Structure formats: C-alpha cells, structure tokens
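Weekly structure sync, notes
Attendees: PL (lead), two postdocs, one rotation student
Agenda item 3: pending single-chain targets
PL asked that the sequence for the first pending target be pasted directly into the notes so everyone works from the same version. It is reproduced below exactly as submitted, 275 residues in total.
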Amino acid sequence: MVEQLVRRGADVRALVRDPSKASLPASVSLAQGDLLDVDALRNALKGVSTLFLLNGVVADEFTQALVALNMAREASIKRVVYLSVIHADLYVNVLHFAGKFGVERMIETMGFSATILRPAYFMSNDLTIKDVVFGYGVYPMPVGGKGLAMIDPRDVGEIAALELIRREQAGTSLPLTRINLVGPDTLTGTGIAGIWSAVLGREIAYGGDDTAPFEQNLRKFMPSWMALDMRLMSERFLTEGMVPAAGDVDRLAALLGRPLRSYRAFAGELAASDQ
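Predicted structure, written out during the meeting:
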C-alpha cells in the first residue's frame, strides 16, 4: 500500500517500531513507536490529515485501535481508512472479528469521515501451508463448502491507497462507507485442491472440515488463544463462508481499472517460484 501511495505522489508518514528494519521507499517519513505508545502516537500524528489504521491479530488488538482513534481525534484528524474484515458482524464469536466490529462501531459513532475496508481471506495466508501442499499432496485448510472469496493482498493494498487518496483529496467530508474486499472467485476446499492439482499436475486432496486438528497444529507455533481464534474462524467458514455481496467483484474491478487477481494465478506464481 505504501508503495502505491508513493507512486501516486502522496506524502506518507509511517509508524514503525524500528526504523532500521523498515523497508520502505526513501520518500516515506518514519515515526518510531507503536500503537500503545501514546507519546509516540501524539508525535507521529502531528500534521497528519488522513489516517490508515491496521491492527495485527494480537491479544490487545482492540485496545491498540481505540488508543489510535482517540489520538487521531485529539490531533483533529477527520479522515480514516480502517482495515477491518468481511462479515465482522456475522462472525460474532471469533475474537479478532468481534474486536474489529467494535472498532467499526467506534469509528462510526465518533463521526470520522471513514472508509471501512472489509477484506476476505488473504490468498497469501496459504504461503504457510505451501510445504504441506507441495510435499504431502494435501490442502489442509478447513475451508468447507460455502466458499471463500479469497483476495490477493496486493489488490487490498492498491484499493486502500486509492481510498486514502480519495478521502484526502475530497473537498468536503465524505460519508462513511464499507467496502467488501474480495477476489474474483468464491472457492470451496475441494475447489482449491482442484486448482492445486491442475497447477502442479498431480492429485492434491482436500484435508477435510475437521477443525480440532487444525487448532492443535496451530498451537505448535502460536499462543493457545490465537489457535482458538483461528479455529473459531474456520468453523464460521464452514457455516457462513466468506461470500461477496452482489456487485462486489464488479465494483472492485472498476475501482482498480483491471480484473482482480485470482487464486489460480497466485498458485501458479507460487509453483513457479519453487522451480
């Protein structure tokens, strides 16, 4: 997203924990700190006119967002683009979905001129299971049969940049809007396995819908609360899916001026990089 903003001539300031590790264009101004450091936020937000807010899936995600929004209001920032999640209002028991929905309500109640971006499952999440697909011939994510409209994060970044610029350049305060960020195809577990089979030229099986082993595997490399969060999310994949509303795909393609990137293209790029 930052590169997209810079490419369009935007004046960008980024809050980073460690400037020495920040891999950003040279024109980007860096402010050191994090979203729980009130003094650092106050300093970083001086002179800022439009805020992009993204919170990681961490135990204090909700608190981080509330601190940032309060500091934004204190700095007289009126324009906000917030990265939420699709179906935040439906996945009510999923920890990070519920937190993001609370932030959406705060943004609306506080009267920000805001765009709330609601992305579906990021295709790049599947980088974490590449070795299972390639080495064991199984697509292990419990996606289910309702379908996920997976989106390429590069499309998310470009759309976020376009919305930030639209808000920044508007002559008047724009109304709050929510935009579902989805890919061009709504894919089931068996459908994704079929894509991998075609891309790799051999049979890739779908691992099934049992979410309990999924949670146990995740506990090997993440905190137990986060593994539970991911399991609860996958259970809602099975019951609700992540399905676009009518017109979502066409709206995004029109905004970008090109087709959305597909999961098949993502899988092909990943397979090519493994050669």
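Discussion points:
- The mean pLDDT is 96.
- The chain is about 45% helix and 10% strand.
Action: rotation student to compare against the earlier draft before next sync.
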